[in-house]
Amino acid sequence: MMRGKRLVNRLATLIAMILGCLLADASAKAEDGYDLWLRYAPLEGEALDRIAGLHGPVAVLSSDGPEEASATMEAARRELGVGLTRLSRNSASSMRSGAEGYVRLECPENRGDSAVGYSVRADGADIRIRGSSDLACLYGVFALLRELSLGVDPVRIDIASEPAMPLRMLNHWDNPDGHVERGYAGRSIFDWWHLPERLDQRMIDYARANASLGINGVVVNNVNARAFMLEPRYIAKYKRLADAWRPYGIRLYVSVRFSAPKDIGGLDSADPLDPEVRAWWQAKADEFYAAVPDFGGFLVKANSEGQPGPQDYGRSHADGANMLAEAIGNRGTVIWRAFVYSAEDETDRAKQAYGEFVPLDGQFADNVIVQVKNGPIDFQPREPFHPMFGAMPNTKLMFEAQITKEYLGFASHLAFLAPLWEEVLDQEPGRGGRVAEVVLPAGMAGVANTGSDRNWSGSHFDQANWYAFGRLAWNPELPSEQIAREWTVQTFTREPEAIEKIVRMMMRSREAVVGYMTPLGLAHLMNTGHHYGPAPWVCDLPRPEWNPCYYHRADADGIGFDRTESGSDALSQYADSIANRWDDPNTIDPRFLLWFHHIAWTAKRPSGLTLWEELVSEYDWGVAEVDAMAREWADLSDAIDPQRHRAVTESLAIQQREARWWRDASIAYWQSLNGLPLPENVRPPADPLEAYIGRTFPEAPGQ
Ligand code: GCV
After folding, report:
1. Gap from CA of 546 to ligand 1 centroid (Å)
2. Which of 54, 241, 509, 697 has the fewest CB atoms within 10 Å around its CB?
3. Is residue 703, in this structure, part of any structural domain at all?
4. What residues does the Glycosyl hydrolase family 67 catalytic domain cover (predicted)?
5. pLDDT for 327-360, tens place per residue?
């Protein structure tokens, strides 16, 4: 019996190796970015010699395991075959029969996504990957390949890792017609038109990339959901996708429109307390689980930006979420978004979510998670952390990040977002530990930046944000710089000087964007609708909070939103330990100054400059940083393949131009209000204010 198993495993090994060679050869073409961080560029010199003796993969099954390897175990072997073959210069001879060591996959065949911690350890000439489920072995394989790509000596490998949080998910804002809301990488990767019969290879490569990071959930459609995506024909499509992703440990979730019982169910109400409505959702959930037994659950945007919700019937968010939670039962999860604000509510928008949700703490069912954006407004280049973190100790809160860069220059600006997320995860709300600890029982969700572009993300550097999100969701304690470095080595180059330059570029990039777009705590000054470029002058849209003027509150005397007690008092939503510090413009972290304070243009700052001088110097600093990044990248032409080097050079040229535009248009507008001269030796805006105001961009993507 055991010999039979061994034979099967040996055969599987051989097939995986041959497949690995074939795949590796097929990919030895131009560097177009499709392979992401799973590129496995051949190792050289000593690093190559060190892995040359490694055979892979051999599965050692537990004695009570089934005869056939699970699809996940097969995926693990396949990945190992591909990875080792490519890393060892695509040379089959390095997998020679006299190899000194084996990579041993020692995981029982039980499937499951809970016990996925793994260890990867050198044991003499062998490497043993161990875990309590097949998925643990797949994750371990990706971890081993990452280490080898980074040049770690196989005999020194010794890692043990497990995910910090249960849910590590991507939220797609993809519409059924293929348009991606806030998507800057082409069309949607989901081909609803041809599913379920046709499944694009991209769906498998997407799953591989996610599994390599430990991402274990994908919401496949926009939170601004269409009700017809709950119809049986769509459930068949989800089934095909879920079946394809299951081996990679990815559960499929769907965004639902709260009014679906009315929209497609023939009912005249969607009241969550109406028995007919509840029965409709129960039947709908059962239909999902009949087709997809491991269906993840529903994501809901309710009573926000015009979406229907329980408040339409005088019910609370908890009433709505709990109704869906009951329908799903212990089979899955309801994720209810806290991104709510209403046109009718005159309360400072930054306060509304806290006001609606915190009183409901403790009222949500066990299988409900409330998903909270990193900041209280909307994925700005910089926001203070959301005050709901730490304020709902009896509710599972999930951290929502935006990987796609709606407010940070779309895909053409280089902005590495790990420092942004790290900044928020590291905050201490004053209750419940750091934000990273508050969200541990739930997880992290990231609004995906993928699309049909060959490089997936619209630009090569934007792949790093997908990567960073996944790595942080697995381990929110990972430092941004380490993430940048490991991504760079796997994706671009192993040349030490080039790595240092690229990491430096990445680490300064987000702060540069803050500098030229929204320095000193300014926010939401982007043009309306598409959010492309500056438009601080927009003040006349019907809904107050759609206007940049609402956020900057600039006039002849000063600028900034007074959120202290004398203003909207949003500061009171933070714990005293924080509010006391932020209450004083001289002690607040200057990065949040104008978020919480309205300051006179001529006020002297602790820096010795006036506010106006400080603001102008921030804009100039941001622009100079982008110029420096472009220069550093230009120096790297020998270290990076020409195709990707040129693509990044062109994006940086766009960023340089647009950084100047942001700086010039903003300064021109502030001057039109304050009438102040520019500080000495400062370059005046290139064009008069009217020229900036007159620009229109009907072609801007992602609207
Ligand atoms: C999906 C912002 C974006 C919207 C997005 C919304 C949300 O307002 O501009 O496009 O809608 O956030 O997170 O629901």
Report:
1. 12
2. 697
3. no
4. 156-456
5. 999 999 999 999 999 878 899 999 999 999 999 9
CATH number for the domain harbouring residue 56: 3.30.379.10
In a domain, 441, yes or no: yes
From 174, 378, 453, 583, active-site residue: 378
pLDDT cut 90: percent of the chain above it: 87
The answer to whether the CB of 414 is under 6 A from ligand 1 is no
Instruction: Examine the domain organization and report whether 331 and 438 are in the same domain.
Output: yes
Q: Determine whether 305 is an active site residue.
A: yes
Regarding whether 625 and 557 lie in a shared domain, the answer is yes
The rounded Å distance from CA 188 to ligand 1 centre is 17
Burial 616-645 (b: 16+ CB within 10 A, else e): bbbbbbbbebbeebbebbeebeebbeeebb
Q: Ligand 1: does its nearest atom lie under 6 Å from the Cβ of 280?
A: no
Q: Give the span between the Cα atoms of 321 and 317, in whole angstroms.
A: 6
Query: What is the Å distance from ligand 1's center to 67 Cα?
Result: 49
Q: For residue 448, how far is its CA from the centre of ligand 1 (angstroms)?
A: 13
Q: Is the CB of 173 under 6 A from ligand 1?
A: yes
Catalytic residue list contains 613 = no
pLDDT in tens, 58-95: 766 555 555 578 999 999 999 999 999 999 975 544 44
Reply yes or no on whether 134 is catalytic: no
Indicate if 484 and 530 belong to the same structural domain: no
Q: Is 400 in the pocket of ligand 1 (CB under 6 A)?
A: no
Our mutation pick for probing the ligand 1 site, out of 352, 378, 404, counting the most ligand atoms within 8 A of Cβ, is 378
Q: How far apart are CA 208 and CA 214, in angstroms?
A: 10
Average pLDDT, whole number, for the chain? Answer: 93
Measured in residues, the chain has a length of 703
Domain that holds residue 88: 31-161
Find out whether 311 and 336 touch, Cβ atoms under 8 Å. Answer: no
Average pLDDT over residues 443-471: 98
- Residue 524 CA to ligand 1 center (angstroms) comes to 13
Treating both helix axes as pointing N-terminal to C-terminal, what angle do 232-245 and 275-291 enclose, rounded to 10 degrees? Answer: 40
Confidence band for 29, pLDDT divided at 50, 70 and 90 = low
Instruction: Confirm whether 6 is domain-assigned.
Output: no
For β-strands 251-256 and 297-300, DSSP reports them as: parallel
Nearest CA to ligand 1 atom 13: 339
pLDDT on residue 14: 52
